[in-house]
Amino acid sequence: MPNDTPQTPAQTPEGDRIAKVLSRAGVASRREAERMIELGQVAVNGKIITSPALNVGPRDRITVDGEPIGQPEPARLWLYYKPEGLVTSNSDEKGRDTIFDHLPEDLPRVMSIGRLDLNSEGLLLLTNDGGLKRKLELPSTGWLRKYRVRVKGNPTEPDLEPLRRGITVEGEKFQPMIVVLDRIQGANAWLTIGLREGKNREIRRAMFAINLTVNRLIRVSYGPFRLGEMVPGDVEEVKGRVLRDQLGQRELPEDAVAPAPRAKGPRPANPRPSTARPSGDRPAPSTDARPTGPRIVKPGAKPSPKPGARAAATPDAKPAASRGKFAPKSGSKPGEKSGGRAFASAAIDAPASRSTKPPSKSWAKAAPKPGGKPNGSRNGPTAGAGKPSARPAKPANPRPKRP
After folding, report:
1. What CA–CA distance (Å, rounded) separates 145 from 329?
2. What are phi and psi for residue 20, nearest 5 degrees?
3. What is the mean pLDDT of each run of 10 residues along the chain (403 residues)?
4. 16-68, what's its fold?
5. What burial class does residue 316 get, using C-beta atoms within 10 Å of its C-beta: 0-12 exposed, 13-18 middle, 19+ buried?
6. Domain spans of the chain, in order of start
7. pTM of the predicted model, to two decimals?
8. Active site residues
9. Which residue ranges have biased composition labelled Low complexity (predicted)?
């Protein structure tokens, strides 16, 4: 018999699923939130719910264990050094202490990213965002987790090879591990192991399969985050900028990129008169110093009487000295390529004092040709004492004596 009753189209309920809202509020992950709902720990508008198939909106009042949940906060991340002997869970059926029993009181409601077993210690990530927790736990994220492992026994490299190829334990396939034998210490050995997945007691079970017993296990890193100098019980929050960078978010706020130009500011502010130039400019004295360099090195050439040649070379000597392999060494020989033609200003001060002696001897030999004794023989050594401004007067005024 046909049903003549008109059917109304199904309406999509407004809002988000209750488990998603709890996860965004930092109460728990979606899966844990669903479990809490089934246990009757969640109430909406004063009524306890037992099914996660419920959408809620901004006006609904949600409580967990009688306490209202807060508004969704920005995702935050903390590094926690889990001590040995604590359970990584919200509660323990055996009554053992959990990590949440020992966290600082001012820490908001957080959840762990992954877990460490009871007898393991080291780096554990905590977050207030369920979406971030799920993302970092996925194997597709590909973050490497490194452990320092002490085993009883003296394994050899062939003994560890099955772990590097991938081992099957009790029908469960483990992915290849990064295994480095660090050192043998008495009856024990220290290893460094890297994993990209986190199965239950994976390292301990894999070691037991090759006849090694783990007696200490420390997680030292989780992706880009390191344990560093933290001690058991320490909690450190990751800065928002670092978190965005590591999660691949390219967009940074203005305050995150503002310090970049300030980092380069102090360099030109240093009290170095010779380098008082705009940042990034190459020294321009190479064009001015090239014509003056050959005049000083060659004794037969007539030096320029312009006093500005010396003044122009003075501010250029130190910038050339700060250019690594192009910098002239003190006491370098005139024939060495310390300054070169590209940095001829650097050769003005160093070779000048050594190149003045040959000109004084050549003038002394050239003076008898006209037949007289030049006065420059007395002033020659004085002119060669490293003062280029006094040298141009010698070849210009020979003062020969006629017979």
Report:
1. 49
2. -65, -40
3. 44 74 81 91 94 90 91 88 94 91 90 93 93 84 93 96 95 94 96 91 96 97 94 95 76 31 36 38 40 42 45 41 38 42 37 44 44 47 46 55 57
4. 3.10.290
5. buried
6. 16-68, 144-222, 285-355, 357-396
7. 0.53
8. 117
9. 256-267, 298-321, 340-355, 387-396
